[in-house]
Amino acid sequence: MSTTSTSDSQRFYLSPAGNDASSGSADAPWATLQGGRDGLRRLRAAGALPEDSAVTVEVGGGSYPLAETLVFGPEDSGTAQGPVHFVAAAGTHPVISGGRRITDWKSIDHAGQRCWVAELPDVAAGHWNFNRLYVNGRPRPRPRLPREGFYHFTGLAGAVPSTEWCKGPDCANFAPGEIMSWRNLSDVELKTYQLWFETHHRIRSVDEAAGVVHFEAPSLGSLIDERGECARFYLENVFEALAEPGQWALDRPAGRLFYLPHPDESPEDTEVIAPRLETLLRVGGAEGQICGNLHFENLTFAHQTWEVPRHVAGYIQAAYGVPGAIVLKGARTCVFYGCRIKHVSGYGIEVLAGSACNTIAACVITDAGAGGVKIGHEETRPHEPAVGEHWIPELSVPPIETTVVDCQIRDCGHLFPSAIGIWIGNSGWNRILHNEIAYCHYTGISCGWTWGYGPTRTVANRIENNRIHHINHLETHSDNGGIYTLGRNPGGVLRGNVIHDISCYGYGGWGIYPDEGSSEFRITNNLICGTKNAAISFHYGRDNLVEQNVFALTRSEHFGLLRRESHRTAVLRQNIFLPKEGPFGGVWKIESLTASNNLFSTRNTSPPLFVTASRAYCAAVGQNRDSVVADPLFTDAEGMDFTLRADSPALKMGFKPWPWKASGPRPKELLPENFAKYRRKYPLEPATQPVLQIVLSPHGDWSAMQQAGGGSFGVTIRNLGRSIWKGTVRFEAGPLKVAGRPDLTRLQCEIAPGEEVSALIRIPLGKNEGTFWLDAEPTGDCGVPTRIIVWSPAESEWPIPSINEVASLDDATRLLGRARVRRIAGGENPVTDVRFGACKNGLLIEGVIYQKILRSAPTAPWTGTAWEILSTPESGARQIFLLLDAETIRVSRFKPGTSKLEPASAVQARQSAHSDGHRITAIIPWEEFGLTACPAKLPFQFLVDAQPGGSSKVSQFLMFPLRYLDAPIKTFLLINPATS
Q1: CA 10 to CA 58: how far, in whole Å?
Q2: What's the average model confidence in pLDDT over 467-479?
Q3: From start to end of 120-267, where are the E strands?
Q4: Residue 865: which residues within 8 A CB-CB, separation 6 or more?
Q5: How far apart are CA 76 and CA 85, in angstroms?
């Protein structure tokens, strides 16, 4: 058989003019990629290809339409010494297309305009449907109502929205004329927007007279948006709205495609392509089978279609259920280099469980219906919403370990705007390096898929040197960031990224957004500027290091921390803060953060952190130590040049500039023509670093330690990584007036992968009562500073009076008049005054919320103006909401053990006017806490959802009113029956 050979490779050829039955030689090329794959299989079966021989299939220029998904299985694998390459011929741009060219047009008149019509029998037969169309290489729009912007539902048609996701209303009210009984109504797609997701509805029926539309599936959410309004919506594929040149509509039952051409377009010289295949390329095998060492280089993949099933309304986050045009499942050490993926309805590339060590380098993904690269979970089925229900922590599975480097991901989210540029699920050891992500509608990069502090496989992910910009620039969604994270991420690194121009619809618009439970990240050497909201905003988490970053020119609050807990969320040191306007942000308990050696550029005369504590107390506990207020002296911050001048005070305080201009992809002209040369020029270091995790555990509570004359702590240092860690862990206790010097201040370690070292530390305690802590910090960059806090009884218990049996709310008001008033404030602004009492009947509460402008949210009271009582007795957690709503008060609770909200009918409560806000009085029976009688102690957390001073401006861009609490989450409410 005639082939062209080199010393280390056998070369074959493809051409659109070839023949799949030929030899694949230069003179007799194959015609399709399926033909090339099958030709190599025949050669292997005949013994004509040595096992370790590299094979190259050179793909000539032109279009290669796919009749079906191109599948490579285990039998198509190469080896590490002899990979199999499918590469574009030099100077050509071959296109592997999942579409079909539409040619048989007829011209008709449509409302006085030229219209082309094509008959598509496969569509009429139900074998084909598509939601995108491409004319001369450009996507064309379907008719849309309204033509620009959105409608808003006017009500929920009597539906009671559920607080459970995916169980929202299945009907809604609309204004006259917005929805009609159009032709082919079942083909119209109604898309709603709420919070961080969109819902895709098919219409079951319309009652025009009543102004009610009924959906085929319940909505994902309540249809009440983050601004407290009924949700936005628009409609697509309305045939009656087909009116502008360039628009098209598909009449699916009739199998007819309508297109309104531009004046300069004619059927003879216009290429119209409709996508046909849901998957263009699949690499992998059946469960447990591996396909490896395949390289695809400088090829273009285009024209994939996918739509949400009619009985599904969409996906609650990140468009996780939308598949990729290219799917890797059971693929190992495969490479996509220099490829272009465009004109697709879903994600560009999807990497699923069973895959490992694949590389996506120097690729361009553009014009995607969803996002760019989707890296799934290391186990579970492809599109499951989360991992908690199916994840088996003890199961040993290989990390997905995908590298995405030097890629450009732009112009995504056309069908599924909640999709992510690069999404990492519950997966570890991935590297996202030197990419550009821009013009996506929700979030640039997302990492993690567990909520809170549960077990995770999201370990040792590195997100470095990316340029992320113009994210959510059209302000369609909320709760978004340039980089978004979830859950624990041991060994997680966000470093060297440049993030700018991040916006939002209602709230969000953050540069880096560590959401629920985000922990153990090193967030270093990032430049974040020009965000609508905070440069970095934590929801809640623990043990994060934020160091050597530039946070500049944010347009509202500058730093965010939504929820304070009984541990430290982050360490902030050697950062530069340069707000453009607005408040610095947030009201934080001093234990939530440790800040030192930062530079603040502000009109204030002192660093604007920890506004709940005095400057004297900050100094006593080491907060804002060595921080300065000064102009950092950037060369031209407004012009996006953040080079520090030689006389910058930041340099004097130890800030070390990094080459931020080198973020993003390396210049295209510097990229070699193939992956072998690229790997030599830009070596990819193996992911073998150690990953350190430090666990501190106190032996007993504050009282027991005081009685013992000192505190004892167990220390465990684990190496979750892949190489030996050698270094030192330093220990320090504080504050000095409460805790003395630990008996062990330095611990030298050498820990092999999977091993751990333990130690015992004792801390002397002084006579002063007060919260104290133990800090542990390792040398190097393989771990993060860790802190354990021990709360003193004086700070963790609220004594309240015992009162005789109370018959009415008037009795409660009269008897609580002797109780101590406790104030919760936001800086200088009072938020709430509250009194507590205990009686035989239950817990008594009375007080004032200093908020004249109320925010009502009956389906999600935590987003309204409310008091929350979160208790954790032995009988299980209880959460009760007292929501102010116009002239009344709504009392609700979560049904124990569920996320279902229901009325708390046994609670007596009332609301009355107050000169500076609203007064609340309530009697909460002990049964609401799962108790049968007045307890001695009740674990609780008291929260207030409100805006200081009753500001209505803040609520325009926050999902939540600011949440205030007067105690850490592990607080005990002391009920003392002896107190009169």
Answers
A1: 11
A2: 96
A3: 133-135, 138-140, 144-145, 151-152, 171-173, 189-194, 197-207, 212-215, 232-236, 248-251, 256-259
A4: 849, 851, 854, 855, 856, 883, 884, 918, 945, 946, 961
A5: 11
| One CATH from 3.40.1190.10, 3.40.50.720, 1.10.3720.10, 2.60.40.1190 for 797-976 | 2.60.40.1190
The Cα 112–Cα 98 span in angstroms is 34
Residue type, 125: A
CA–CA dist 635, 806 (Å, integer):
68
Cβ within 8 Å of residue 971, ≥6 positions away? 791, 796, 797, 798, 939, 940, 941
Coil, strand or helix at 850: coil
User: Facing residues of 867 across strands?
Assistant: 882, 944
Please count the helices (runs of H) and the strands (runs of E) in the chain: 8, 80
Handedness of CA 747, 753, 754, 755 (dihedral sign): negative
Whole-angstrom distance, CA of residue 186 vs CA of residue 652? 67
How far is residue 408's CA from residue 348's CA, in Å, rounded to a whole number?
Answer: 12
Q: Which of 851, 849, 863, 823 is nearest to 922 (CA)?
A: 849
Per-residue pLDDT at 541 exceeds 70? yes
Distance between CA 702 and CA 796 in Å, rounded? 10
pLDDT tens profile 17-43: 999 999 999 999 999 999 999 999 999
Sign of the CA dihedral with 817 first, then 822, 824, and 828 last = positive
How do 467-471 and 436-440 pair as beta strands? parallel
The rounded distance, in Å, linking the Cα atoms of 433 and 493 is 11
Kindly state the tokens that stand for 390.
């199916």
Q: How many CB atoms lie within 10 A of CB 767?
A: 7
d(CA 637, CA 650): 14
Dist CA 851 CA 832 (whole Å):
9
Distance CA 785, CA 765 (A): 22
Strand partners, 972: 797, 939
Averaged pLDDT score across all residues of the chain = 88
AA identity, residue 486? L
Phi, psi of 773 (to 5 degrees): -145, 165
Q: Residue 522 and residue 691: Cα distance in Å, rounded?
A: 12
Tell me the average pLDDT across 614-621.
70
Give the integer Cα–Cα distance in Å for 228 and 243: 34
The token pair that represents 798 in the structure block? 């609220």
Q: Which CATH superfamily is domain 692-794 in?
A: Immunoglobulins (2.60.40.10)
Per-residue pLDDT of 126-166, as tens digits, reads 999 999 999 999 999 999 999 999 999 999 988 776 667 88
**CB within 8 Å of 121: residues ≥ 6 apart:** 255
Distance separating alpha carbons of residues 515 and 317, to the nearest angstrom = 13
Instruction: Note the pLDDT of residue 707.
Output: 81
CB 210 within 8 A of CB 172: no
Q: Residue 661: which residues within 8 A CB-CB, separation 6 or more? A: none
CA atoms within 13 A on the CB side of 591: 23
Residue pointed to by tokens 């218990």: 797
CA 608, 855, 174, 202 dihedral sign is positive
Q: What is the dihedral of CA 145, 146, 147, 149, to 10 degrees?
A: -130
**Single pTM value for the model:** 0.88
Residue-wise over 5-22: b if at least 16 C-beta within 10 A, else e?
A: eeeeebbbbbbeebebeb
Q: What are phi and psi for residue 41, nearest 5 degrees? A: -60, -40
What is the distance between the alpha carbons of residues 369 and 344, in angstroms, rounded to a whole number? 6
